[in-house]
Specification:
The complex is a heterodimer of chains A (about 150) and B (about 725). Chain A has about 150 residues and is of the alpha+beta class. Chain A has helices at about 20-30, 85-90, 100-115, 120-125, 135-150, and strands at about 5, 10-15, 50, 55, 70. A five-stranded mixed beta sheet of chain A has the order 2-1-5-3-4, with helices on both faces. In chain A, a hairpin with a 2-residue loop joins β1 (about 5) and β2. Chain B is an alpha+beta fold. In chain B, the strands form seven sheets. A seven-stranded mixed beta sheet of chain B has the order 11-12-9-19-16-17-18, sandwiched between helices. Chain B has a six-stranded mixed beta sheet with strand order 14-22-21-20-15-29, with helices on both faces. Chain B has a five-stranded mixed beta sheet with strand order 2-1-3-4-5. In chain B, α2 packs parallel to α4, α10 (about 375-385) runs parallel beside α11 and α19 (about 630-650) packs across α20 (about 695-710). In chain B, about 55% of the residues are buried. Classes of the chains: A alpha+beta (about 150), B alpha+beta (about 725). Chains A and B meet through α1, α2, α3, α4 and α5 of A and α19 of B.
């Protein structure tokens, strides 16, 4: 039976088996490849999306769980890279290989939504869910602080 | 990835300068994008530069982009001498063509060793200057004035006397291109103080695509009718499937085909989840072929250490000065020490994968992959199908991290995709899971280091001897290069002889082990472990002599002003001589391929748990001319984080020849909560640019160990310096 949900505000559906990770439906069925496969175990955050506005590991979310819910991916954050977090990411020249950065941005947006002026310690705690093997961490901190400052 | 100018206006005149023989060619109506340049039969020579009448300057970029920034920095070097307007430059990914685009140091298109800017710097400046000269000559004849009266500004030729200007695009509309490229003397190149682009940060060209999900990696490729592949590879290198029970795998929904391979079993399915599930359902008994069966890293390391220490064991001389062995005999005082390093995994964020589409007849193939050598990828695909390289269409993709993992001569994950696609003659995206990526990892080798130093009666360091026992790397990673280099394995031994330290008698040797494990270059390469040993040892020597460790090193590089300056710089930045309360600093220095770098780390120790915390790292590096300073700082931040993982957590163990770890649950890499405050200074000098991509990585481990020695008096001798090991060492 098809599972219906919203992807970046638009209704969609999937016929994949209920236990299928949302990640693969987003990437290979819906063709939204900004959300990445990094570990498949909820430990790296490359697959981070928003589920009803809160961050969630797409690789740990089965599509059976998302019926009627709203999924937001990096592609749904803004049409033109104009989200303040995206702008700050560019201003601080955060990405290196860039592979983890969709997930990093989705995590940062989630943080700033509930806590627009996070302390350094709060940033570190929240963002330690996401691995960046290129070690762009100092720039991620600076980008988040820039958003908080400019808000 | 395609960052290319698409020139569909065939009436537009373009001209270009090629590398082969530095000959110019005129080409009107040539489509200028990387795919067209790779295929088009009527272009006898691929261009480095194409100037269009709309004033666009297209410049080829020959290196792989894996986050290090070469995609931008290489064309920027050419643009500098061309005096191009960077806003009008379009970067084009160069197609696979060793003859035209090879890295001059390697002889083929290969991005590794933090070497791209170093090796391409001179040729790219020359190509840029040649095109500029042609533009000037054309403007001179157009205006009928002497060339000497002309100058250039960004994308424009200027005749100051008459106030006339011609844009590069305007010149392109009438330009006569000489059959032979003009000579350019080194003295005609720009003086560094006149650079407009080099040394001035620009936004990396692919960066905007990396904040909105549009950056394209191989794993993102979608081809109509595409299937999904997974591969169960043998747990031990050289083993093969003996008995395959695929009953359960075949019974899974959406499984298309099971493909037995010489080294494993492939699965092709309609969805990725079906492919992964079916792979997990395979039951395979493996042959006990392959050398590493029975190998245990825990048991092997003491044996490696014994071999390193045993001077009767055969060794390969890597580098020497004077006669260290004889000098050691005459020394008044000899100090010995030993260090060990566990295996390390790359953990690039994008698990290895590739997409291949083999034609119905099996006589042609398209591949999409992220690789450190695109010409190798083409060769791998061609060899797998026994077709000519010309029948392989290569699509260049961004790399979700490289770190040395994606440049092996067999590029086995590309091979996987090609053979699976060939089995069904359909496009197949073959992905490794994270577990596959760890289990099939190719690691920085296990190593044991024996070092000894001899002092004369006056206390002068007169002899240095370093023996490193490890599996060699190049023989496995790149047999072609190994043979070409006549068995000299720089990936394993480079830097083992500390060639930059002014010690009259030095000897650095490799004591090759033959475990049969898969080995690889990894960020920091040979220096990663060699420098852990050398810089820890230097610290021990300094302490034994009662000399300040920074001063001790300074004395050993005193005839090199750049080295002295960088040591002094970091000592100043860290306020090195100030004693801390509850923490301590460790100091390190290295000359890595000509880049001068020193690094100090501050360490806090939790004596109850043995956990080390690094609140601060100070580093300064002098890589000569700094092409993109902010990117150098970013690479240095990145290098420090990578070095921190090596120093504190990262450890692969092998039992019965097979990898024991599986993912980020049992292989820990640094997270934001682990990283120090980083204080970085990039020091620009007018020297030829040298590497920046991994320079801090090897210094982090020894800086931490040296800080622990300062704090506790206890020497840590093995990476990673885990809490358990620290507690044990503290007793």
């Amino acid at each position: 039976m098809a599972i219906r949900f919203l992807i970046n505000g638009k209704p969609t559906q999937s016929e994949a088996p209920p236990a299928t990770p949302l990640l693969w439906v987003i990437r290979e069925e819906l063709g939204l490849t900004g959300t990445k496969f990094g570990c498949g175990t909820g430990l790296c955050g490359a697959c981070m999306v928003h589920l009803d506005g809160k961050r969630a590991f797409a690789c740990q979310t089965q599509i059976a769980e998302i019926g009627g819910k709203a999924v937001t991916t990096i592609e749904g954050l803004s049409a033109d890279s104009s989200h303040p977090v995206q702008k700050a990411w560019l201003a601080e020249r955060v990405p290196q290989c860039g592979y983890c950065q969709s997930g990093q941005i989705m995590s940062a947006v989630d943080l700033l939504k509930s806590n627009p002026k996070p302390t350094r310690a709060e940033i570190v705690e929240h963002m330690s869910t996401n691995i960046c093997r290129c070690g762009s961490y100092p720039r991620i901190v600076r980008a988040i602080e820039r958003v908080a400052r400019e808000a | 990835m395609t960052i290319a100018i698409r020139n569909s206006d065939i009436s537009r005149r373009t001209f270009m300068v090629g590398a082969a023989g530095l000959t110019f060619a005129v080409a009107s109506g040539v489509r200028v994008d990387s795919a067209a340049a790779a295929r088009s039969g009527d272009v006898t020579m691929s261009p480095w530069v194409t100037i269009s009448t709309d004033d666009t300057v297209a410049i080829m970029s020959p290196a792989a982009e894996m986050g290090q920034g070469s995609l931008t920095s290489l064309p920027l070097i050419l643009a500098e001498e061309l005096d191009a307007d960077w806003a009008k430059v379009r970067v084009v990914v160069a197609p696979p063509n060793d003859e035209l685009y090879k890295n001059p140091s390697f002889g083929y298109m290969y991005t590794a060793g933090s070497n791209a800017v170093t090796s391409y710097f001179k040729p790219l400046r020359l190509f840029g200057a040649q095109v500029r000269k042609v533009l000037l000559a054309n403007a001179a004849s157009h205006w009928n004035v002497p060339v000497a009266e002309l100058t250039t500004g960004p994308n424009v030729v200027i005749h100051a006397a008459s106030g006339r200007r011609l844009s590069y695009g305007e010149i392109a509309a009438f330009a006569d291109i000489p059959a032979k490229a003009p000579e350019v003397a080194e003295s005609e190149l720009k003086r560094p103080d006149t650079f407009r682009l080099i040394g001035h940060d620009v936004v990396r060209v692919e960066l905007p695509s990396k904040i909105n999900g549009t950056a394209q990696y191989a794993i993102d490729v979608q081809v109509p009718g595409m299937l999904y592949g997974a591969v169960l590879r043998a747990p031990v290198e050289g083993a093969a499937p003996d008995k395959i029970d695929d009953t359960k795998a075949k019974a899974q929904a959406d499984v298309v085909q099971i493909v037995p391979l010489p080294y494993g079993v492939g699965v092709i399915a309609k969805t990725p989840w079906a492919a992964f599930d079916a792979k997990d359902a395979l039951k395979v008994a493996w042959t006990r072929t392959g050398k590493a069966w029975g190998f245990s890293s825990e048991k092997a390391l003491p044996e490696f250490a014994a071999a390193a220490r045993d001077l009767t064991q055969p060794a390969k001389v890597w580098g020497k000065a004077g006669d260290a062995v004889a000098a050691m005999q005459t020394a008044a005082n000899v100090v010995e020490a030993e260090y060990r390093n566990d295996l390390v995994y790359h953990a690039q964020m994008e698990p290895l994968n590739a997409v291949a589409s083999v034609s119905e007849k099996g006589d042609a193939c398209e591949v999409w992959c992220g690789v450190q050598s695109k010409t190798i990828a083409v060769t791998v695909a061609a060899n797998a199908l026994k077709i000519l390289p010309e029948k392989v269409t290569y699509h260049d993709m961004l790399l979700g991290g490289g770190f040395g993992r994606r440049g092996h001569r067999d590029e086995e994950y590309v091979h996987d995709a090609v053979v699976l696609s060939n089995a069904v003659k359909k496009p197949v995206k073959t992905m490794w899971t994270r577990e596959d990526d760890v289990h099939n990892g190719r690691f920085n080798p296990l190593s044991a280091h024996y070092l000894r130093a001899g002092f004369d009666a006056s206390g002068k360091l007169i002899a240095f001897h370093h023996r490193k026992a490890c599996d060699e790397v190049t023989a496995f990673q790149d047999p072609v290069r190994y043979e070409r280099q006549k068995g000299r394995d720089g990936i394993a031994y480079n830097g083992v002889d500390a060639p930059y330290y002014e010690i009259p008698n030095r000897l650095g040797e490799g004591v090759p082990r033959e475990s049969g494990l898969r080995t690889s270059s990894l960020r920091g390469i040979a220096h990663l472990t060699n420098i852990f040993a050398i810089e820890s040892f230097m610290d021990e020597l300094a302490r034994k002599r009662g000399v300040d460790p920074a001063e001790f090193r300074r004395e050993l590089v005193k005839s090199n002003p750049r080295a002295v300056a960088i040591i002094d710089k970091v000592a100043g930045m860290a306020d090195w001589r100030r004693k801390r309360d509850g923490s301590a600093l460790g100091f390190t220095y290295m000359n890595y391929s000509g880049t001068q770098i020193a690094l100090a780390a501050e360490v806090v120790l939790d004596r109850k748990t043995g956990a080390l915390r690094v609140p601060n790292v100070w580093t300064a590096l002098d890589p000569g001319i700094t092409v993109q300073p902010d990117n150098i700082a970013a690479q240095t931040e990145s290098s420090i984080v990578y070095g921190l993982g090596f120093a504190l957590f990262e450890r692969i163990t092998i039992d019965d020849g097979a990898v024991e770890q599986s993912g980020f649950y049992d292989y820990q890499v640094p997270r934001m909560r682990d990283i120090p405050e980083m204080h970085i200074e990039v020091v620009a000098t007018d020297n030829h640019p040298t590497g920046v991509g991994q320079m801090a990585t090897p210094l982090v481990g020894p800086a931490i160990a040296n800080a622990v020695a300062e704090l506790t008096g206890v020497r840590l001798r093995q990476t990673p310096m885990t809490p358990e090991r620290v507690k044990k060492a503290l007793g």
